[in-house]
Amino acid sequence: MTSVPLVDLQAQRTAVADEVAEGWQQVLAQTTFIGGPQVAAFEEQYREFIGAGHCVGLANGTDAIEIALRALGIGVGDECILPANTFIATAEAVSRAGATPVLVDCADDGTFLIDADGVTAAVTPRTRAIIPVHLYGQAAPVELLLPLAERIGAWVVEDAAQSQGARRNGLRAGSLGHVAATSFYPGKNLGAYGDAGAALTSIDEVAERMRMIKDHGSPRKYEHAVVGVNSRLDSLQAVVLSAKLRRLDAWNASRRLAAERYDAMLSGEDRVIRPRTLPGNEHVWHLYVVLVKERDRVLKELNAAGIGAGVHYPVPIHVTSAFASLEYAQGAFPVAERTAPQLLSLPIFAEITEDQQERVVSVLKDALG
Q: Which residues does 325 contact at the CB level (< 8 Å), separation at least 6?
């Protein structure tokens, strides 16, 4: 039985192994484990790659959203609008900042991206931020949200955890709103060898506040201007991220080719609804997510046959026990609720071969049958 993993981290590790080993030896020799030159180098490289004014390296992507919100002055009594169909970290970060998550549905167009009309309807006098999620590797239509944010005096904070390298209308995800947060969790398109993240902005004073908040609220040692946190990107992870960043565009191009192959292999298969790319987007295919009926049974059969399929995400935010206090009724977000039981993530990574994809599709069709 030929197995196919959901993501193959070993292939990327091999590609950068020598470069990472050399960089880690430098860190060890310099003993610059926290805040070393490697961190500053990566921040500059990623800032330039995205096209933002500043990049602040952080410990993880959840911290990045929270710190961005806090740097914008968002907290208790404020509301942040975000999609119901996202990883719980998006809502968690809002709650950790002291604000209240306000959920909206995803668009009923096959992209699963935030519904801009739903955002408009969800605005209240307490709305301080709109958080579009660049889901599965493609950018949300931020340009539809910016005029609304300006009109109501709110900020647009991109959750760009799944979209490293993606473009919308020629601009990189992470440079589309006022501030962006991203995650370098190992399975991301740009993944570290542990937890890591970053926040990006072109607003100087916001970048300065984020740098203070992430380092115990301190602009300089033993001076604490605000109550902060400890959320610093370490030098060893920065070495890994720099090595991978140099290869990211090529890896993303390989992911696009793999997605095109899946599209062709599944063409005409009416039991599978394929993902749709929003016009104006250059997708980086962090995930290739289809809709199938009897998803749980199909997933079980795929996994039993050695196919590392998965689910992202099994329930919308308002269905989780953690956010039952938001008191949204079942049926509040019909598109997210209808699609959640059908979502199926197929294996995709830069190095996946056509033979591996044929194996995935063959087993999928057998399971559907």
A: none
CA distance linking residue 309 with residue 345, whole number of Å:
6
Joined tokens for residue 348: 């995709």
Rounded to whole angstroms, the Cα distance separating 178 from 155 reads 6
Phi, psi of 267 (to 5 degrees): -60, 130
Q: Which long-range contacts (CB under 8 A, 24 or more apart) does 20-23 make?
A: 20/193, 20/239, 20/240, 20/243, 23/239, 23/240, 23/242, 23/243
Give me the amino acid identity at 160. A
Residue 245: which of 23, 30, 7, 81 has the closest Cα?
23
Cα separation, 183 vs 59, whole angstroms: 9
What is the Cα 312 distance to its own chain's centre? 12
Residue pair 49/189 in contact (Cβ under 8 Å)? The answer is no
**CA 150, chain centre distance (Å):** 24
Domains in the chain, please, with CATH?
A: 9-245 (3.40.640.10), 248-368 (3.90.1150.10)
pLDDT tens profile 134-173:
999 999 999 999 999 999 999 999 999 999 999 999 999 9
Helices then strands, each counted (H, E), the chain: 12, 12
Is the pTM higher than 0.90? The answer reads yes
State the DSSP H helix or E strand holding residue 58, giving kind and residue range, or none if neither: strand 54-58
pLDDT value at residue 37? 97
Strands 167-168 and 281-282: antiparallel
- What is the pairing mode between strands 79-83 and 54-58? unpaired
Which pair of tokens denotes residue 34? Answer: 């926290």
Contacts of 56 (CB under 8 A, 6+ apart): 43, 67, 198, 199, 200, 207, 210, 211, 214
Q: Which of 268, 62, 313, 292 is nearest to 185 (CA)?
A: 62
